[in-house]
Design a protein that fits this description.
By secondary structure, this protein is an alpha+beta fold. The chain has 8 helices and 37 strands. The protein binds 2-acetamido-2-deoxy-beta-D-glucopyranose (6 copies).
Length: 595
């Protein structure tokens, strides 16, 4: 195992050297006339001018196979991850937050490796990305895994774009030889075609289809997008390269570049048990509950041993207590509503269990390979005995939604995505009401680790929303409106369900974890029986929406009543939660990518 401490130092030094490599005099400057106008805009410092470094210290990882060793063999094609860059060009308008975007070439490519494409990101975030570089280890002269392009096609240049920019950018798409594919662009600041040995194309059997994902930048109907494999999930061999695509017009799929494909075992360099422990020790978030939160998390065993009951259809008057680890829960993979879990019957007990027990709280971790085994996802599940009632905002009025949104048995999660090549935490997924978002590590909040891990370090922060327990990276209010099928993060007409986060005194350390599933480790991880309970973790709630609406609308001025009613009726089932909630394994994306 590489000594990550030393690697970090090298990494930081390299970054510092790169940071000084500011593009000097531009070879061609067709927009020199406009230069004065844009000078001021350009001189302003943007987040991307800072290089992000994880504020997390990690000692070297425990011994193992190839985790964090820096290389992976995809099948006679060795790849390595490069996250040091040389800036080629920048635009200072357009893109997310209208802060522009920058384009880079990987720098410090290890000896023997070749570039597969360039990197680009919006300027509204610190520089933080990677591209894979590759080395042909096939020893075949005629049919190797890498070949130079035979030519380039000119994609577009930015000369006539209205956005303020550094000189002009020329974007080239490699023309791959027969049986090979291009994985990214070459970018230049002159009209001259780049040299053919600048980049390599990959033999087709080692490539897979990709799709555009987030938008990086655009101007005058030309756009840059991030790309990712179309086929993602625990079994999917497709590998993200980290390169970007430049397109004319809106995102069109499939793009003209490919992703990589791992022909070898996708679990080759996945972390072993000791490494999993070390990773979770340094990266596990602190979970902050809202100051007004009444419904706290608990361990599953606390819930079971404090009176949770197993009901069987037709025998409702005779529920049975649930044993430790759920050993008496049905294990057949049916979701037929024959059984369900509920709170204790007795009112005092019910209230006691509803409010949870944060001291017993622990995270339940599912470890799975992702993106062809180049990353490991650590899905960290948290259990809450009860999900409190929803709250809405109608213009300036806050409304408690009564029974709407309430349910017993609430499973929430965040996912840490760690690179198997460099051992770094790259992204965190925040689950929000059957949806969610991936956030770069550079956009997270961190706090000092209070445990003694032997060295000073920080860990990420996650905030859980009041009552609904959705997870967010920052405090604040998000209004959820549902004008369409997708989740829209803005209430329509000033009406929306409230997702409130704030930093309360109740904090759960997700680093107190139980590893509940890691298929690739075979029999060394035994799934607890409760994980294989396929039915619902709470009863169906039988209430009349009309009745609830009537009692709530009493408090609203006349003209807001209709708006409010339309909004509530438009809420998706997940938020109305008339049906009991399902367990982690029954949720979508147990074996897929998070979306
Ligand atoms: C090159 O190798 C690939 C993968 O092994 C194979 O599918 C292809 O037929 C080979 N091409 C030639 C010309 O040998
Ligand atoms: C740059 O692109 C414009 C079209 O946007 C084209 O007219 C012009 O010829 C290009 N310049 C060069 C040097 O290729
Ligand atoms: C519950 O599971 C844990 C491991 O997850 C095990 O150590 C413990 O012995 C189990 N308890 C019972 C009562 O089965
Ligand atoms: C799970 O993934 C699938 C596709 O992989 C997607 O359609 C679905 O919306 C995702 N569900 C959640 C809860 O993220
Ligand atoms: C966090 O730790 C650093 C030293 O590692 C220290 O300088 C800083 O004051 C600490 N911050 C807080 C909020 O405790
Ligand atoms: C649900 O409530 C309605 C009346 O509010 C009642 O007619 C119906 O039987 C209830 N269903 C169940 C399953 O309890």
């Amino acid at each position: 195992m590489g000594n990550v401490g030393i690697l970090w130092v090298c990494f930081v030094l390299l970054m510092a050297i790169q940071a000084m490599e500011v593009p000097k005099a531009a070879p061609v400057d067709p927009i020199s006339d406009n230069k004065k106008i844009f000078k001021e805009k350009r001189s302003r410092l943007r987040p991307v001018d800072n290089i992000f470094k994880l504020p997390i210290t990690s000692n070297s990882w425990p011994e193992g196979n190839g985790f964090a060793s820096g290389v992976l063999d995809l099948g006679k094609l060795q790849v390595s991850q490069v996250s040091t860059f040389k800036k080629v060009w920048g635009a200072y308008e357009g893109g997310p937050d209208d802060k522009g975007a920058s384009v880079y070439e990987p720098s410090g490519i290890p000896q023997g490796y070749s570039m597969l494409g360039s990197y680009s990101q919006p300027n509204n975030k610190p520089l933080f990305g990677y591209v894979l570089v590759a080395k042909d280890v096939s020893q075949s002269t005629s049919n190797g895994t890498l070949k130079s392009p035979i030519d380039y096609t000119f994609v577009f240049n930015t000369t006539s774009f209205s956005a303020s920019q550094d000189f002009s950018l020329f974007i080239w798409l490699p023309v791959a030889p027969d049986g090979y594919k291009a994985l990214g662009h070459v970018v230049t600041t002159t009209v001259d075609k780049p040299s053919l040995d600048k980049i390599k194309c990959v033999r087709s059997d080692l490539t897979d289809q990709c799709e555009t994902s987030s938008w990086i930048w655009g101007s005058n109907n030309f756009n840059f997008y991030d790309v990712r494999p179309s086929n993602r999930g625990v079994q999917a061999p497709s590998v993200r390269v980290g390169t970007f695509i430049a397109q004319i017009g809106e995102a069109s799929n499939p793009p003209s570049i490919s992703c990589l494909k791992n022909l070898n075992s996708i679990t080759q360099i996945m972390p072993n048990l000791k490494q999993i422990e070390a990773i979770l020790q340094v990266y596990s978030p602190f979970l902050y509950l809202h100051p007004d939160e009444k419904y706290l998390p608990s361990s599953v065993n606390w819930f079971f041993s404090n009176g949770a009951l197993l009901y069987k259809k037709g025998q409702e008057s005779n529920p049975v207590p649930i044993a430790q680890n759920g050993t008496n829960l049905p294990q057949d993979p049916n979701t037929d509503g024959e059984y369900w879990i509920d709170l204790p019957v007795n009112d005092a007990n019910k209230e006691r269990v509803e409010i949870g027990n944060i001291q017993s709280g622990e995270s339940y971790v599912h470890v799975k390979p992702m993106l062809g085994g180049t990353f490991t996802d650590f899905v960290m599940w948290v259990f809450y005995p009860f999900n409190g009632p929803g709250r809405a905002k109608v213009k300036f009025i806050n409304i408690k939604l009564g029974r709407i949104g309430e349910h017993v048995g609430d499973w929430e999660h965040v996912t840490l995505r760690v690179s198997n090549l460099d051992g770094q935490l790259w992204h965190v997924y925040f689950s929000q009401h059957n949806h969610g978002s991936w956030i770069d590590s550079s956009q997270l909040e961190y706090q000092n680790d209070t445990r003694s891990v032997g060295f000073p370090t920080k860990r990420p922060i996650v905030y859980a929303t009041l009552h609904g327990h959705a997870s967010y990276p920052h405090v604040g209010l998000v209004l959820l409106g549902y004008p369409h099928a997708g989740l829209v993060l803005l209430g329509k007409d000033g009406v929306g369900a409230r997702d409130d986060t704030d930093r309360g005194g109740n904090v759960m350390d997700l680093g107190k974890f139980v590893l509940v599933s890691a298929d690739y480790l075979g029999k060394s991880v035994i799934e607890p029986p409760w994980l294989n309970f396929y039915r619902e973790w709470g009863p169906n709630i039988n209430f009349s929406l009309d009745g609830e609406l009537k009692s709530i609308e009493k408090f609203l001025p006349g003209k807001l009543k209709d708006r409010f009613e339309n909004f509530v009726r438009g809420l998706p089932k997940e938020l109305l939660e008339e049906e009991g909630p399902i367990g982690p394994k029954q949720k979508n994306n147990w074996s897929g990518d998070e979306v």
